[in-house]
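Reopening this ticket.

The earlier resolution said the output was attached, but the attachment link was broken on my side. Pasting everything inline this time so it's all in one place.
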Amino acid sequence: MGRDKALVLGGGGVAGIAWTFGVLAGLADGPSGVDVRTPDVVIGTSAGSVVAAQLRSEVSLPERYEQQIKPRPDGAETELTPIGLDVQALWLRLTEARTGTDDPQEQRRRVGALALAASTVDEAARRASVAARLALPSWPEGDVRITGVDAHTGEDVVFTRKSGVDLLDAVAASCAVPGVWPPATIAGRRYVDGGVRTMVNADLATGFDRILILAPLPTPDLDEQVAELERHSRVVVIAADEAARTAFGANPLDPSTRAPAGLAGFAQGQANIETVRALWGG
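Inline output:
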């Protein structure tokens, strides 16, 4: 397999899923559009894992996008909505869990311990919600990598079709926001959100020549990772702009953010067609 193109999809909750599908649909829209769904590798974290798992399905990008911006015909909502979630308070708790050590794995272990102790919805209910997103939870063809973190040890993991793990379980693990959703159980181990390592995990694309990064919720470590990647690779980053961040609101896990986030993503995709074409070609 070549190591030419890498597509990196970062985390960002329900809003991040919608925004990312919107960006991809906007990029591919019209006769001048560019389709970036078939790179040499797709790396998905949290919300990005949901998108990565579906990129090569038979459902077209326009259909995926429409699913984000339009309500279900039957009026049913398959997403679980965290009740009374204070995102700022949660962020503070996660930050406090990391204090007192400079060891990244120990920091992740502490966040994992917080997640293991948290009172959340039942794991089976959460797994069913993730399954409803994926529809057909089997690994797609090609090199798809989904990030997670071992809640017991803080070790970061990358799930692939060769890991012997169901795609549904890999995505459930990558989306298991600490303190919000239950850690996912895989072969007796518990795993939390890949965003506990970093929100985008762009550094996992090291070694690829052309790298496109979609970052719904960019954090400062992304700048450091991109600077390192740019030493040897061509990199384009599309991060949520002001309109998108407004659409995400105070809680990007709230399903009501889906449609406005998708629309904002589509607009950003269209605005970046030429920039991405110059990177991607075709």
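Reporter confirms the inline version is readable. The chain has a mean pLDDT of 93. Residues 22 and 160 are 25 Å apart (CA to CA).
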